[in-house]
């Protein structure tokens, strides 16, 4: 089993990002994803900065992938996407079908990100024909869903051709919108947001009228209110999952990475907190926390 660090979903200062990836270089992670996937206004790190980090991490022995934007809204974002796809060195995680089209056009292999939302064997089969080498399954798929999908007769002969990655830790990315919720929460227009996301390194919590934390708002992105945590499911993942993804948090990311690595065989389980959930993987409501350590 390999472990990955997903792209940082939040808007952090440049120095914070560079320190984070310096720590990643010395960590036990196998794969690191780099790039801005939420909002193109977030320019603390530019393309050349990401490339410099990519080379540093590769020299440290990590596999590096570049992640593309999820919701393209302007010609400038399309130009930046082409720059990523033409990097000539690192594998791309395509987070929308426009990136997949560009990569196929240039006959380049790619990773299909979770926002592309693949739910059936026919779609995976088609993406394989376009050059897909790995897919990150949609966050709401259960273990039973994935097992059934990957055991489809259409995919069985090609199973050796691609890897499957599971988002296993972090607030679940659920939706994206043309509107910016963080700007709106500060009574600002999206075009005059003044990059206010940088004040919220872990997003803004949203509670229901009865006080339950239901979502975390992160610019144009809506995340789950509870933190997804599948640490106790690691020993039961089976042969379907090749890579376990840790989504970077503002604090404690590498402590959690070590906990996950140490519990691959179930010898170091960890009780979930009241603010954590694991429902989707167990085919329950997404926000449910199943306390049993045996499932």
Automatic annotation (TrEMBL):
InterPro entries in alphabetical order: Peptidase_U32, RNA/ubiquinone_mod_enzymes, UbiV
GO biological process: ubiquinone biosynthetic process
Names of the cofactor(s): [4Fe-4S] cluster
Binding, [4Fe-4S] cluster: 39, 180, 193, 197
Keywords: 4Fe-4S, Iron, Iron-sulfur, Metal-binding, Ubiquinone biosynthesis
Pfam families to which the protein is assigned, alphabetical: Peptidase_U32
Keyword Kinase: no
Coiled coil segments of this chain: none
GO function terms (MF aspect): 4 iron, 4 sulfur cluster binding; metal ion binding
Functional pathway: Cofactor biosynthesis; ubiquinone biosynthesis
Domain of life: Bacteria
UniProt function note: Required for O(2)-independent ubiquinone (coenzyme Q) biosynthesis. Together with UbiU, is essential for the C6-hydroxylation reaction in the oxygen-independent ubiquinone biosynthesis pathway.
Subunit structure: Forms a heterodimer with UbiU.
Family the entry assigns: Belongs to the peptidase U32 family. UbiV subfamily.
Name this protein carries in UniProt: Ubiquinone biosynthesis protein UbiV
Protein's gene: ubiV
């Amino acid at each position: 089993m390999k472990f990955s660090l997903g792209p940082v979903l939040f808007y952090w200062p440049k120095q914070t990002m560079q320190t984070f990836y310096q720590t990643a270089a010395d960590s036990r992670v196998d794969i690191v994803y780099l790039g801005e996937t939420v909002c193109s206004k977030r320019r603390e790190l530019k393309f050349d900065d990401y490339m410099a980090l990519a080379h540093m991490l590769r020299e440290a022995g990590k596999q590096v992938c570049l992640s593309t934007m999820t919701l393209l809204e302007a010609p400038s974002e399309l130009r930046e996407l082409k720059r990523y796809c033409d990097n000539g060195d690192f594998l791309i995680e395509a987070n929308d079908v426009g990136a997949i089209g560009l990569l196929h056009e240039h006959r380049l292999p790619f990773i299909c990100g979770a926002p592309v939302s693949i739910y059936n064997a026919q779609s995976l089969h088609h993406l394989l024909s376009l050059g897909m080498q790995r897919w990150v399954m949609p966050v709401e798929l259960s273990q039973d869903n994935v097992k059934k999908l990957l055991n489809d007769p259409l995919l069985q002969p090609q199973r050796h051709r691609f890897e499957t990655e599971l988002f296993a830790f972090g607030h679940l990315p659920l939706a994206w919108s043309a509107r910016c919720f963080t700007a709106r929460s500060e009574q600002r227009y999206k075009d005059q947001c003044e990059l206010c996301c940088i004040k919220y390194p872990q997003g803004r919590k949203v509670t229901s009228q009865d006080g339950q934390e239901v979502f975390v708002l992160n610019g144009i992105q809506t995340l789950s209110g509870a933190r997804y945590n599948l640490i106790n499911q690691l020993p039961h993942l089976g042969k379907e999952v090749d890579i376990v993804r840790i989504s970077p948090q503002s604090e404690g990311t590498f402590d959690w990475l070590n906990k996950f690595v140490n519990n691959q065989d179930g010898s170091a389980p960890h009780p979930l907190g009241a603010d954590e959930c694991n429902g989707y993987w167990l085919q329950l409501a997404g926000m449910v926390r199943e306390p049993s350590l045996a499932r």
